[in-house]
Design brief:
This protein is an alpha/beta fold. It has 18 helices and 14 strands. Helix 6 (114-129) crosses helix 7, helix 10 packs across helix 17 (341-354) and helix 12 packs across helix 17 (341-354). Helices cover 45% and strands 16% of the residues.
Length: 382
């Protein structure tokens, strides 16, 4: 597929159009290898795709630091479609120019048959077209996300397609990090006051990390030019981010909402929460490489009051997030004979936030409701 005179050709297809994708994967592509264009498909609603298409898919990315903003005009996203455009998704993935499919379908997306079904159909179109191998690059906060994506696709593929996927599709494990709140009307108004008409801007922090491990049989952008790291094993990076950043975010969100806070930076002004946070980091840092420096960076990132990262946004789908981020940590602490209390505070906050009782603990991990090490006197130990 060829691009227009001033836009790159589509070589990457993305499923899960949203603010994080446009702040992260599109950013790494534009500043790493702008010859690669991205076509993105929304997860459900077509509204954002329609808004972007109406402005030629160009948008403003605002890097909001503690003191000032930096503005970037983004142009590597060259097409946006609603989730209902399966015909276009099939055509693009079946084309020989497309070498990479990236995904941001969230933790819940792997349990929703509709999300992988779209890609299964598109990969079948590629198989039938003879376009050759392709890489699938999930960017969600789940353990072993490449293997998770592979399992989700194979579960819906027939025997012929499953064999083709095994021989022609690589699954890349990744760790993706950039705090990106949902865009607000105030964000749009701020740009309008500067003379920039943009109905779909993205506001994000200056920090960005992308770690990838796996093959790209049809080629890939030079994302490393924008700071991406290619490695043989993402597990140390995965452990560091899921436990120290995502686990800490859950603690601040679930406990912070109960204490009347609205955003991460607000919660960081609460001495009770910050004390619990430091105690959480102390146990979550065990076995994590470069944990001390990473936590130092997190303190700076979390206290950036100019980024309004809503606690309610972080608390969405908390049960699945706990299962991915906190349950493995608690199990490891228990196995090592370490008091898991600081990590169990996150679970306790979830019970309060969701109005659940301790019987609900078995939804997180079988047997937890009856395990005396997990709760005490009808509450999680804190």
């Amino acid at each position: 597929m060829t691009g227009s005179a001033d836009r790159p050709p589509v070589r990457i297809v993305h499923i899960g159009l949203g603010a994080f994708h446009r702040a992260h994967q599109v950013w790494f592509t534009q500043f790493g290898d702008p010859e690669w264009g991205v076509a993105a498909f929304s997860g459900r609603s077509a509204r954002l795709a329609e808004t972007l298409a109406a402005q030629d898919c160009r948008y403003t990315l605002v890097e909001r630091g503690p003191e000032f903003d930096a503005h970037h005009r983004m142009s590597s996203l060259v097409a946006a479609y609603g989730a209902d455009r399966q015909d276009v998704l099939d055509r693009l993935v079946a084309g020989p120019d497309v070498a990479v499919v990236t995904l941001t379908i969230t933790e819940a997306g792997y349990a929703d048959p509709a999300a992988p079904r779209r890609l299964v159909q598109a990969l079948d179109a590629r198989r039938r077209s003879g376009a050759g191998p392709i890489a699938v690059v999930p960017c969600d906060n789940v353990l072993a996300n490449g293997a998770r994506a592979r399992s989700a696709l194979l579960a819906q593929a027939d025997d012929d397609l499953a064999r083709w996927i095994d021989g022609h599709v690589s699954f890349v494990d990744t760790v993706s990090d950039r705090i990106t709140p949902a865009t607000t009307a105030d964000d749009v108004a701020r740009l309008a006051a500067l003379g920039v008409e943009d109905r779909a801007p993205v506001v994000t922090e200056p920090f960005a990390e992308w770690v990838l491990a796996g093959g790209f049989p049809a080629g890939r952008p030079a994302w490393e030019r924008a700071g991406a790291v290619f490695t043989e094993d993402v597990r140390p990076f995965e452990r560091r981010k899921l436990r120290l950043l995502n686990g800490a975010h859950l603690l601040l969100a679930l406990a912070g909402l109960a204490r009347g806070h609205a955003a991460v930076a607000d919660a960081m002004t609460d001495p009770v929460l910050t004390e619990h946070l430091e105690e959480y980091w102390a146990v979550a840092s065990r076995g994590v490489p470069e944990a001390e420096e990473y936590v130092r960076q997190l303190r700076v990132r979390f206290t950036n009051g100019r980024i309004r990262h809503a606690l309610a946004q972080i608390a969405l789908d908390a049960e699945n997030k706990l299962r991915e981020r906190i349950v493995p940590l608690v199990r490891e602490l228990l196995a090592d004979g370490v008091d898991p209390g600081p990590a169990l505070r996150v679970v306790d906050a979830w019970l309060v936030h969701s109005g659940q009782n301790t019987d609900s603990l078995d939804r997180l991990a079988p047997g937890w409701a009856a395990d005396p090490r997990i709760h005490h006197d009808g509450r999680c130990r804190s």
